[in-house]
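Data availability (excerpt). The following record was deposited with the supplementary files.
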Amino acid sequence: MGKKVLVALTMCFGMVLGAFGTARASGETAAILPPMSVPMAKYLAANPDAKKALMASLAQTAGSTPRFVTSAGGTWANVTLALHSGGFVNPFLLTDGSVVVQTADNRKFWKLSPDAQGNYADGTWTQLADLPKIGGVQYAPLYHAGAVLPDGRLIFMGGEYNGSDTEVWTNLGAIYDPIANSWTPVSAPTGAGWSMIGDAQSIVLPSGQFLLASCCSYKPPSDAILNPQTLGWTETGAPRHGGSYQDEQGYSLLPDGDVLTVDIWTDYNSKTEPTNTELYVPKRQSWVAGPQLRQSVTDQRVCGTYEIGPAVMRGDDTLVQFGANTGCPAGGSRLDPTQVLDITLNKWIQGPYVPVVCGKTGRRPCTLPDAPAAVMNDAKILFAASSGYGEAPTHFFEFDPNNVIVEVSDPLENSKDRGAYTYSLLDLPNGQVLMSDFSSQLEVYTPADPQVDDYAPIITSAPKTVQPGGTYTLAGLQLGGRTQGVGYGDDEQMATNFPIIRFTNMASGDVVYARSMDFSGYSVADNAPSAASFTVPTGIETGASKMSVIANGAASAPIMVNVQ
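Predicted structure:
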């Protein structure tokens, strides 16, 4: 496989090299490290002139284009700066309502806690424990697998980069305990195919099990499930129906509990663009063929990137898969497609094309090879897109429930200088969306429309009286919501389909979040029953309070609780 792919890449890069340019204009700074497929990265390593040209095309250019502002959509606000000047990446929501972010390609870790009104823009920052050294090697991944587990711990596995600007596809891993503020190394699964994990995809199954893929193994393809108590792994079935390779593919959780992946490498050396999908069936621990796409959403073979866009579930039992057509010169300038999977009909339908408003002139097609999307609590999808293979500027859009795309305002900072792959999005408990862009300036996006209650959890059983420091159990329906919240190709996974517990004091209006854990399920099915435990913060105000359960930014109807 590798030799055929490199031959194809050599041909395509020879045709498109001129598109990247070969020199930087004055005022440009170094490009942000991009996520890449293994074959593309290996080709660039063997062809330094091609890599230099690519990085020049991705370099940031100060003042390269005006910021786009419109009255459509929501609004952006800056988050209070941390006492730290490095670039933040890959935010995760912990079960106590705080957000943790990593300094890009670095061991440093930080926590953002909301203020007394539950506002993250005015929150406070705390430095956390550094990522660990493992076998004498500092773990500092960029573009890796990750998830919040049912016990509230955060796991990282792999990394395309590890503290350097050279791809290593590490198989190191670590798990973070927010109570102890400490990291514990996690060994990779054993057996063939696990020497590299890299930018692998991962997902938490409805049962709460963590499913991990190996990014780069194809003889055989490899998937494994983590035992969180022993931190050991059990091999499980891996996709085989559309080819035996998973690099750059994403995993999406469906309402029936199956996991969807869109195949990228089917007949990789043919002129036919792939349209097949596969489904992991947890009960069988194996993969089966999924519904055929109406149109390929991967980048064109001739462009050689082998990328795909984000996929996100919506609360109406449809999934939106964004395309990744970079429109390289050899492949033409086709529009970037979207496809919508109707879960009920098990059938893909054609979605809208991404608008043609990107590039320096604002006249190039926008596209999403490794770009973020987040389902908001108003049922719209916020997403970022830029032209080509992550070329500045980046613009933002909303994809509404009627499958219509509307351009919204750019963030307040940096979008004119960055490609879409530099952005991460995260659903917050207050209904906003947090954005990071490899700078120290995070922003929040506030939707213009009110919450759609069908997306919210429903409390069926909860204590009426609680005490500070006490641990309790509640039950309800769709406590994980109707979506995983966010998507980003394969390189980042920051799902928020788990319950966040919020207390609002009736007298003061102050907001605190309990730490939730022991989730009985991560299902995104309509009215799926589940339960969770939570620990009331010791500093909570006493008296009458409203308690809500939140998933992906959508809050349940509150119940009254007396804090004694």
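Summary of structural features: The longest strand covers residues 167-177.
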